[in-house]
Specification:
elongated, 5-stranded mixed sheet, alpha/beta, 15 strands, 26% strand, Aminopeptidase, 6-stranded mixed sheet, 418 residues, single chain, 38% helix, Immunoglobulin-like, AMIN_dom
Length: 418
């Protein structure tokens, strides 16, 4: 071996030694922190994880031993406060960065104890808060499940706070998910209109440059005004300007308004020559046809336009979809879709087999009847001309308004009769 080879060998050995020394230093620091925590009697918070989206979140906080936990809710803004014994927090700042339903995370010493504060993006429900022993015997963890809720539900939780403060007993899954759409006494029929796409996500675009996000916003505003003019409904829009909105945020808005109906507005393009007309979609775990599956796949990719990394807990998503299919919500969605197709058929053109289904993320709220309306195809010049026509928008929006009125009356009659 020549001098150059020997030098390379020594450099490699030196690098290996430096790496080992770094690892040993890190272990010494961690062991020192753990020893310091034990020496001063502080509880050690050793790790933090958050997963979920704007509709449902799970937060896990790890400890070196079993913590004595008390929790309560505050409003203005909506917060979950978790009180702990005095705790040494050794958490990674990147891990505690807020996301999904959680708008802010704060923690620290309060003198006689320590506190973790989770601020929500509006009202939420604490579905579950458990103190659990880690399976590997290395310590304990707090597991918190939160989901988007309405102001009424948050207020009810506040009113019952004396019964829940400090509780670590969770309800079973049936109690958390509910048994179908339930409205408060005196609740006005509420419609949330969702103009598809927006901001950096333009959606589909015609050969002539018409962009879907502008078409959906103009139509949604027309529909909102017609519904509001009746005076019987509370009407909200997920967006009223050109702003990007993740799919789970749209679902959160519908749930937090306790919507009786979510109508998502879209206008797609398709490669099938001559295909035109409106379509009404509902949610299912299996698409009604390949075209519906392809559309759902395209719409579900909207979140990628803002560079977001979509992380789904597949089991959670599957449970929600199955639950939705089997419960009263799905029946209401199908009922409204049928009524809507009937009303649209008298005023605007529909494709063949206009009532279809697929796994659209924006329709996944387990307690909000939801439909997605494809107004037409921007890839068809005749449909594009209609979508840009104020007269056509008014006519189509009136048909949807008529369908909402029939659906609202039917629900009110069913409640009165039940």
């Amino acid at each position: 071996m020549g001098p150059a080879g020997t030098a390379d060998k020594w450099r490699g050995a030196a690098g290996h030694l430096r790496l080992m020394a770094g690892i040993l230093c890190l272990l010494a620091v961690l062991l020192g922190l753990a020893a310091a925590s034990r020496a001063d009697g502080l509880l050690g918070a050793t790790g933090y994880k958050m997963a979920g989206d704007a509709t449902k979140m799970r937060i896990v906080l790890n400890f070196d031993r079993e913590p004595d936990v008390k929790w309560f809710l505050l409003r203005g803004p909506n917060r979950l406060v978790v009180d702990l014994p005095r705790t040494r927090f050794a958490l990674n700042a990147k891990d505690v960065k807020p996301r999904g339903l959680v708008r802010a995370v704060r923690y620290g010493d309060q003198g006689k104890g320590s506190r973790l504060i989770l601020t929500g993006k509006g009202p939420f429900a604490v579905d579950k808060l458990d103190v659990l022993k880690n399976d590997d015997g290395s310590g304990y963890r707090i597991a918190i499940d939160m989901s988007a809720a309405s102001e009424r539900e948050f207020d009810e939780a506040l009113a019952n706070q004396s019964l829940t403060t400090g509780s670590t007993v969770s309800t079973d899954k049936g109690g958390r998910v509910g048994t179908g759409p339930v409205s408060a006494p005196g609740h006005r029929f509420t419609v949330v209109i969702d103009p598809g796409h927006g901001g950096v996500d333009g959606g589909a675009e015609s050969a002539g440059g018409t962009v879907e996000k502008n078409v959906t916003l103009a139509f949604a505003a027309e529909l909102r005004d017609k519904l509001a003019a009746i005076g019987k409904y509370d009407v909200y829009m997920t967006r009223d300007n050109d702003v990007y909105l993740p799919l789970d945020e749209r679902v959160r808005i519908a749930r937090q308004h306790e919507a009786d109906l979510l109508i998502s507005i879209h206008a797609d393009t398709i490669g099938v020559k001559g295909l035109r007309g409106a379509t009404v979609y509902t949610l299912s775990d299996k698409a009604s046809d390949p075209e519906a599956q392809a559309l759902a796949d395209r719409e579900n990719l909207s979140d990628q336009f803002a560079g977001m990394k979509i992380e789904d807990d597949n089991k959670e998503v599957t449970d929600i979809l199955i639950d939705l299919i089997r419960r009263e919500t799905h029946g209401f969605s199908m009922s409204f879709a049928h009524t809507l197709v009937g009303q649209l058929s008298t005023s605007v053109g529909l494709i063949n087999n206009p009532q279809r289904s697929a796994g659209f993320k924006v329709l996944k709220a387990p307690d909000v009847p939801s439909v997605l309306v494809e107004l037409g195809y921007l890839s068809n010049s005749k449909d594009e001309a209609q979508l840009l026509s104020a007269d056509w928008r008014g006519k189509a929006a009136q048909s949807i308004t008529n369908a909402v009125a029939l659906f609202a009356a039917a629900k009110a009659g069913a409640r009165a009769g039940g």
